[in-house]
Amino acid sequence: MTDGLTIEAVLPLSWVTRQATSQANVEMQRQSNVSLLRALASMEAIAPERELGDEATQKALERMESKLDIVMLLLAKLAAASGLLPSEKPLALRTDSLSWLEHEHAPTMGESVMISLYLNPRLPQPLLLSAQVCDLQNKDHGIQIEVKLEDAGEELQEWLTRTIFRYHRRQVQARRQP
To answer: Which H or E element spans position 80?
Structure first.
Protein backbone atom coordinates (compact mmCIF):
# COMPACT_ATOMS: atom_id res chain seq x y z
CA MET A 1 0.00 0.00 0.00
CA THR A 2 2.70 2.56 0.89
CA ASP A 3 6.42 2.71 0.44
CA GLY A 4 6.99 3.33 4.17
CA LEU A 5 7.48 7.08 3.99
CA THR A 6 5.35 8.82 6.58
CA ILE A 7 5.10 12.28 8.09
CA GLU A 8 3.83 12.09 11.66
CA ALA A 9 2.95 15.53 12.96
CA VAL A 10 0.35 17.76 14.56
CA LEU A 11 -0.75 20.17 11.84
CA PRO A 12 -3.75 22.35 11.00
CA LEU A 13 -6.23 20.18 9.09
CA SER A 14 -9.85 20.51 8.05
CA TRP A 15 -12.11 18.56 5.75
CA VAL A 16 -15.39 18.98 3.91
CA THR A 17 -17.54 16.62 1.90
CA ARG A 18 -16.24 16.84 -1.64
CA GLN A 19 -18.60 18.10 -4.28
CA ALA A 20 -18.47 17.08 -7.92
CA THR A 21 -16.22 19.44 -9.84
CA SER A 22 -15.11 19.98 -13.39
CA GLN A 23 -11.88 18.59 -14.78
CA ALA A 24 -10.65 22.17 -15.22
CA ASN A 25 -11.11 22.82 -11.48
CA VAL A 26 -9.35 19.57 -10.62
CA GLU A 27 -6.39 20.58 -12.80
CA MET A 28 -6.25 24.07 -11.25
CA GLN A 29 -6.21 22.48 -7.79
CA ARG A 30 -3.38 20.14 -8.84
CA GLN A 31 -1.31 23.03 -10.19
CA SER A 32 -1.94 25.06 -7.03
CA ASN A 33 -0.76 22.09 -4.94
CA VAL A 34 2.36 21.65 -7.09
CA SER A 35 3.14 25.37 -6.75
CA LEU A 36 2.72 25.14 -2.97
CA LEU A 37 4.98 22.09 -2.66
CA ARG A 38 7.62 23.72 -4.86
CA ALA A 39 7.49 26.88 -2.75
CA LEU A 40 7.83 24.85 0.45
CA ALA A 41 10.82 22.99 -0.97
CA SER A 42 12.44 26.27 -1.90
CA MET A 43 11.71 27.88 1.49
CA GLU A 44 12.89 24.88 3.45
CA ALA A 45 16.01 24.20 1.42
CA ILE A 46 19.23 24.48 3.31
CA ALA A 47 21.14 27.30 1.71
CA PRO A 48 24.20 25.95 -0.10
CA GLU A 49 27.55 27.58 0.38
CA ARG A 50 27.29 30.62 -1.78
CA GLU A 51 30.03 31.38 -4.19
CA LEU A 52 28.71 34.69 -5.35
CA GLY A 53 31.93 36.57 -5.21
CA ASP A 54 32.06 39.57 -2.99
CA GLU A 55 30.93 39.90 0.60
CA ALA A 56 28.59 42.81 -0.21
CA THR A 57 26.51 40.63 -2.53
CA GLN A 58 26.34 37.93 0.16
CA LYS A 59 25.13 40.43 2.78
CA ALA A 60 22.56 41.91 0.39
CA LEU A 61 21.09 38.47 -0.27
CA GLU A 62 21.00 37.69 3.46
CA ARG A 63 19.12 40.97 4.12
CA MET A 64 16.64 40.17 1.36
CA GLU A 65 16.05 36.67 2.76
CA SER A 66 15.51 38.18 6.23
CA LYS A 67 12.94 40.61 4.85
CA LEU A 68 11.11 37.82 3.04
CA ASP A 69 11.13 35.76 6.25
CA ILE A 70 9.52 38.68 8.09
CA VAL A 71 6.83 39.05 5.42
CA MET A 72 6.09 35.31 5.56
CA LEU A 73 5.93 35.39 9.36
CA LEU A 74 3.53 38.35 9.32
CA LEU A 75 1.36 36.68 6.71
CA ALA A 76 1.19 33.50 8.80
CA LYS A 77 0.30 35.47 11.94
CA LEU A 78 -2.37 37.40 10.06
CA ALA A 79 -3.89 34.16 8.75
CA ALA A 80 -3.83 32.60 12.23
CA ALA A 81 -5.27 35.72 13.89
CA SER A 82 -8.13 35.95 11.40
CA GLY A 83 -9.11 32.38 12.15
CA LEU A 84 -8.22 31.08 8.71
CA LEU A 85 -6.18 28.18 10.02
CA PRO A 86 -8.14 25.15 11.23
CA SER A 87 -7.36 23.40 14.50
CA GLU A 88 -4.28 21.22 14.70
CA LYS A 89 -4.72 17.47 14.64
CA PRO A 90 -2.30 14.57 15.09
CA LEU A 91 -1.85 12.96 11.68
CA ALA A 92 0.17 10.58 9.56
CA LEU A 93 0.61 11.52 5.89
CA ARG A 94 1.83 8.89 3.44
CA THR A 95 2.23 9.05 -0.31
CA ASP A 96 -1.12 7.35 -0.86
CA SER A 97 -3.08 7.91 2.34
CA LEU A 98 -3.68 10.14 5.33
CA SER A 99 -4.95 9.40 8.82
CA TRP A 100 -5.84 11.80 11.60
CA LEU A 101 -7.64 11.93 14.93
CA GLU A 102 -10.88 13.87 14.71
CA HIS A 103 -12.34 15.21 17.95
CA GLU A 104 -15.51 16.75 16.57
CA HIS A 105 -17.58 15.25 13.77
CA ALA A 106 -16.28 12.66 11.34
CA PRO A 107 -17.06 11.80 7.74
CA THR A 108 -18.84 8.55 6.97
CA MET A 109 -17.27 5.40 5.59
CA GLY A 110 -16.79 5.63 1.80
CA GLU A 111 -17.46 9.38 1.72
CA SER A 112 -15.42 11.54 -0.67
CA VAL A 113 -13.74 14.42 1.15
CA MET A 114 -11.57 17.43 0.39
CA ILE A 115 -8.83 17.87 2.97
CA SER A 116 -7.06 21.17 3.64
CA LEU A 117 -3.67 20.48 5.20
CA TYR A 118 -1.27 23.23 6.26
CA LEU A 119 2.26 21.81 6.12
CA ASN A 120 4.24 24.86 7.19
CA PRO A 121 3.08 27.71 9.45
CA ARG A 122 5.29 30.14 7.52
CA LEU A 123 3.16 29.59 4.42
CA PRO A 124 -0.53 29.57 5.39
CA GLN A 125 -1.79 28.04 2.16
CA PRO A 126 -3.37 24.60 2.35
CA LEU A 127 -2.44 21.52 0.40
CA LEU A 128 -5.83 20.42 -0.97
CA LEU A 129 -6.16 16.65 -1.15
CA SER A 130 -9.09 14.72 -2.60
CA ALA A 131 -9.64 11.47 -0.76
CA GLN A 132 -12.10 8.74 0.11
CA VAL A 133 -12.71 7.53 3.66
CA CYS A 134 -11.56 3.92 3.93
CA ASP A 135 -11.49 3.32 7.72
CA LEU A 136 -12.98 4.78 10.88
CA GLN A 137 -11.96 3.64 14.36
CA ASN A 138 -13.26 4.86 17.70
CA LYS A 139 -10.43 5.97 19.99
CA ASP A 140 -10.42 7.21 23.57
CA HIS A 141 -10.38 10.86 22.55
CA GLY A 142 -12.08 10.84 19.17
CA ILE A 143 -12.28 8.97 15.89
CA GLN A 144 -9.23 7.88 13.91
CA ILE A 145 -9.97 8.53 10.24
CA GLU A 146 -8.04 6.87 7.41
CA VAL A 147 -8.48 8.14 3.87
CA LYS A 148 -7.04 6.96 0.59
CA LEU A 149 -5.74 9.82 -1.53
CA GLU A 150 -7.29 9.94 -4.95
CA ASP A 151 -5.34 10.24 -8.20
CA ALA A 152 -3.35 13.44 -7.90
CA GLY A 153 -1.70 13.28 -11.29
CA GLU A 154 1.92 12.44 -12.01
CA GLU A 155 3.53 15.82 -11.27
CA LEU A 156 1.67 16.38 -7.99
CA GLN A 157 2.39 12.82 -6.88
CA GLU A 158 6.09 13.40 -7.55
CA TRP A 159 6.14 16.61 -5.47
CA LEU A 160 4.09 15.03 -2.69
CA THR A 161 6.54 12.11 -2.53
CA ARG A 162 9.51 14.52 -2.43
CA THR A 163 7.90 16.54 0.36
CA ILE A 164 7.05 13.49 2.44
CA PHE A 165 10.57 12.15 1.93
CA ARG A 166 12.10 15.47 3.05
CA TYR A 167 9.90 15.71 6.17
CA HIS A 168 10.37 12.01 6.96
CA ARG A 169 14.16 12.35 6.71
CA ARG A 170 14.07 15.31 9.12
CA GLN A 171 11.97 13.36 11.61
CA VAL A 172 14.38 10.41 11.49
CA GLN A 173 17.35 12.76 12.00
CA ALA A 174 15.61 14.48 14.92
CA ARG A 175 15.04 11.10 16.64
CA ARG A 176 18.72 10.21 16.27
CA GLN A 177 19.99 13.39 17.86
CA PRO A 178 20.33 13.38 21.67
So the answer is: helix 55-81
Residues in the chain: 178
pTM of the entire predicted model:
0.76
Beta-bridge mates of residue 22 = none
Tell me the average pLDDT across 153-157. Answer: 89
CATH of domain 6-48+86-176: 2.40.10.220
C-alpha angle 73-94-140 in degrees, rounded to nearest 5: 90
Query: Given 3-state DSSP classes, what are the helix, strand and coil percentages for the chain, each rounded to the nearest 5?
Result: 40, 30, 30
**pLDDT for position 64:** 75
- Buried b or exposed e, range 17-43, using 16+ CB within 10 angstroms: ebeeeeeeeeeebbeebbebbeebeee
- Residue-wise pLDDT for 113-137, tens only, equals 999 999 987 777 889 999 999 999 9
The structural domains of the chain, with segments of one domain joined by +, span 6-48+86-176
Q: Average per-residue pLDDT in the chain?
A: 83
* Interatomic CA distance for residues 137 and 144, integer angstroms: 5
